[in-house]
Design brief:
With about 750 residues, this protein is an alpha/beta fold. It is built from 29 helices and 21 strands. Helix 13 links the parallel strand 12 and strand 13. The two termini are about 35 Å apart. The structure holds nicotinamide-adenine-dinucleotide (NAD). This is 3-hydroxyacyl-CoA dehydrogenase/enoyl-CoA hydratase/3-hydroxybutyryl-CoA epimerase.
Length: about 750
């Protein structure tokens, strides 16, 4: 047996070398420069050793590999930025060479003369699947944990290590494009049906089956290196391709509004590559890959959606020196809409939870939500019956506060009413242990104020969930003035346990996410009042990259909730805090027309019974004189919607509400889907340059109002040529990457 840092190689009596990838001190195998060096050494050694007849490549971990390593990608960008300043042309060349390292290493495996079989035992993503594609045989275990994907497009790039060329030569072009432009995961069965893998076998037989392929005489030649090779479907000059390729860019444009250069590059690589000899096609892919790596979109998306998201998830903001929390029991008070789902996600993480409401019946109603979610998951095959029963056994509905006596953390999700919350805080504190942390899921009440009802405000924290809790990946952790480190650490540990991404926000009205969301919705009110047709507002938002238009979003959160929040704002901050025309619009919808949103079937949209689809309410047209569509500039609408949100995010930084740019970026994408291709609110500003952003704000302020005026911080940054990630360096101030 030969041992490398990340691999072991063991050759059996049949001359088959089993290469097992098992990186020390990592839960998941990833590609690093060292891994590639070792892989190259293994390739050389197995080629040189006449006793080796073939190679089986597998993983020693429960998953196969997650693909590229964060630090490697970060290194690529540093390289680009540093070298670009010195010599742009040389920087491009260097990036091209680095980007090609995997491509040509995998090609060397493919052409080494001895058969390689990849034995895929678990999740196999990105570069790891591209390596597998370069092997001559691929066997996957028949297991739910095997997920195969080329998900690079989700972080703004694309499979650039031969993926676009091999997938489109194994599967038909339509399936290939679908898989790569969506980044969707495939089951082993689906991958086999597409032609991407050869066999699916029971997990215990994986390596044996892989070795058997070699013993059965697997040819060490890729299909495309054989004379007369034809891609499935026949390449690009066939009637089927004549239907697919002209339509594909249009479909992609419909799905992405042209905002994702990485997705478009996949189409180009496949279309151009299929017309070329294989190695020339690899070079074309390498060129596009280099080009895409140089885009602002790729840089910002990788930073936010890959690096920052993982860092925040791993506790980048967790105070050091606080012992890791153990959760043996969680209490949730209020078994309503939010509390019931919070109990579900807690139990789904394997933690026992008591779900308390005012009486047994109300508590049971809360548990019924878990029962329904479990039944749905079992029916869809996402959970076994036993797993479902186990989950449900962890949820105990009760009106009895005494059951909280041994809880480690209590989360309150009762009515949004200060008096009700005060009573609950007192009732809970009367029974819990001195060390227990109390968290409130309030969405509008400042944590500092609520904590005044607590005898131990240092153990009081906000944990703000988003609905639907079981789907939304973000949780805001809110610090009151007196919240202590242990409360913060406990909240972050809990959020990590339920597999959500936290952002840490200082106390403010609306916290981070809702402050941004209301700016988005308010801008849409302004547009309506100007006479912009509602459909144009909604479409402009989608074209700007927002997943949901502002009016549709307002219907989801409820129009009467907006009314409540506006009224509370007027009561607390004065008349000037809400535009009278906005109040008039919402009062008319709610008070006069009972249009409260999706929940009562009518809001900005009409919601007819299924299967009919919702449509914008035509009556909205009569509220304000309508501008002819030709007089409305869609690009300006797009800018207004994104700029108003980004400006609000910048204000939260200026006010010290958000202190780490990673949180404003990740929070905006996970919280309300802020145009992901921008990398989030602050990356949107950094990406265009603060100076450009300030100029844009000034232009919009002159025409659409003072709310677009750039803030002092932005002006200062523009004058100094700073960026958010430079001025508020997340890796400075003693903070480190997790
Ligand atoms: P809800 O009305 O659906 O549920 C509240 C539950 O609390 C009810 O079941 C009620 O019976 C129970 N309750 C009231 N007083 C109680 C008491 N003294 N003891 C025990 N139980 C009591 O409300 P919701 O939408 O789930 O909101 C709950 C909290 O979550 C609020 O603070 C709200 O601001 C916040 N929140 C809501 C959303 C949302 O989208 N609805 C999102 C984030 C946060």
């Amino acid at each position: 047996m030969t041992t490398y840092t990340n691999f072991t190689v063991e050759t059996d009596t049949d001359g088959i070398a089993l290469v097992t990838w098992d990186m020390p001190e990592k839960s998941m195998n990833v590609f690093t420069a060292e891994v590639m060096d070792e892989l190259e050494a293994i390739l050389k050694a197995t080629v040189a050793d006449a006793g080796v007849k073939g190679v089986v490549f597998t993983s020693g971990k429960s998953s196969f590999s997650g693909g590229a390593d964060l630090t490697m990608i970060r290194g690529l960008f540093s390289l680009l930025h540093e070298e670009q300043a010195k010599d742009p042309q040389a920087a491009k060349q260097k990036l091209f060479d680095v980007a090609g390292r995997m491509t040509w290493l995998f090609r060397a495996i493919e052409t080494n003369g001895k058969p390689w079989v990849s034995a895929i035992n678990g999740t196999c993503m990105g570069g790891a699947f591209e390596l597998s594609l370069a092997c001559h045989g691929r066997v996957a275990a028949n297991s739910k944990s095997v997920k195969i994907a080329l998900p690079e497009v989700k972080v703004g790039i694309f499979p650039g290590a031969g993926g676009t060329q091999r997938v489109s030569r194994l599967a038909n072009a339509q399936d290939a494009l679908q898989m790569m432009t969506t980044g969707q995961s495939l089951t082993p069965q689906r991958a086999k049906a597409m032609g991407l893998i050869h066999q699916v076998v029971e997990p215990g037989e994986l390596v044996t089956a892989a070795k058997q392929m070699i013993k059965d005489g697997l040819k060490p030649v890729a299909p495309w290196d054989e004379k007369g090779f034809k891609a499935p479907g026949g390449g690009v000059w066939t009637p089927a391709a004549a239907q697919l390729f002209p339509a594909a860019p249009a479909i992609l444009r419909r799905e992405t509004a042209g905002n994702y250069p990485g997705a478009l590059a996949i189409l180009k690589c496949v279309y151009e590559g299929l017309q070329l000899p294989f190695e020339t096609a690899l070079k074309v892919e390498q060129r596009y890959f280099t080009q895409i790596l140089g885009t602002t979109e790729a840089f910002s998306m990788i930073r936010s959606l890959f690096i920052s998201m993982q860092e925040l998830g791993k506790g980048a903001r967790r105070p050091a020196g606080v012992e890791k929390s153990e959760f043996k029991k969680i209490g949730v008070i209020g078994a309503g809409f939010m509390g019931a789902s919070i109990a579900y996600v807690t139990a789904a993480a394997g933690i026992p939870v008591v779900l308390i409401d005012r009486d047994q019946e109300a508590a049971n109603k809360g548990k019924a939500v878990s029962e329904k979610l479990v039944a749905d998951s079992v029916a869809k095959g996402r959970m076994t019956k036993e797993e479902g029963e186990k989950l449900l056994s962890l949820v105990t509905p009760t009106p009895d506060y005494q059951t909280l006596a041994d809880a480690d953390l209590v989360i309150e999700a009762v009515f949004e009413d200060r008096a009700v919350k005060k009573a609950v805080i007192e009732q809970v504190e009367a029974v819990i242990r001195p060390a227990t942390i109390f968290a409130s899921n309030t969405s509008t009440l400042p944590i500092t104020g609520l904590a005044e009802n607590s005898k131990r405000p240092d153990q009081f924290v906000g944990v703000h969930f988003f609905s639907p809790v079981e789907k939304m990946m973000l949780t805001e952790v809110i610090l009151g003035e007196k919240t202590g480190d242990r409360a913060l650490a406990t909240a972050l540990d809990f959020v990590a346990k339920i597999k959500k991404t936290p952002i840490v926000v200082n106390d403010t009205r609306g916290f981070f996410v809702n402050r941004c969301v209301f700016r988005y919705i308010n801008e849409a009110y302004d547009m309506l009042i100007e006479g912009v047709p509602a459909a144009m507002i909604e479409n402009a938002a989608k074209m700007a990259g927002m997943p949901v238009g502002p009016l549709s979003l307002n219907d989801e959160v409820a129009v009467d909730l907006s009314q409540k929040i506006m009224k509370a704002s007027i009561a607390d901050l004065g008349e000037a805090s809400v535009k009278p025309a906005h109040m008039a619009l919402i009062d008319k919808l709610v008070n006069d027309l009972d249009r409260r949103g999706r929940k009562n079937g009518q809001g900005f949209y009409d919601y007819p019974p299924k299967p009919a689809k919702k449509s914008l309410w035509p009556g909205l047209k009569d509220f304000y004189p309508q501008k002819p569509a030709a007089e409305v500039d869609v690009d300006t609408l797009k800018q207004r919607l994104l700029v108003t949100i980004a400006l609000e995010a910048a204000r939260t930084v200026e006010e010290g509400i958000v202190t780490d740019p990673r949180e404003a970026d990740v929070g905006s994408i996970l919280g309300f889907g802020f145009a992901p291709y921008t990398g989030g609110t602050l990356s949107y500003i950094d990406g265009m340059g603060v100076k450009t952003f300030v100029a844009l704000c000034e232009k919009l302020a002159a025409k659409y109002g003072e709310h677009f005026a750039p803030t002092p911080l932005l002006k200062d940054m523009a004058a100094k040529g700073e960026t958010f990630y430079g001025r508020f360096d997340p890796y400075g101030q003693g903070r480190v990457a997790a």
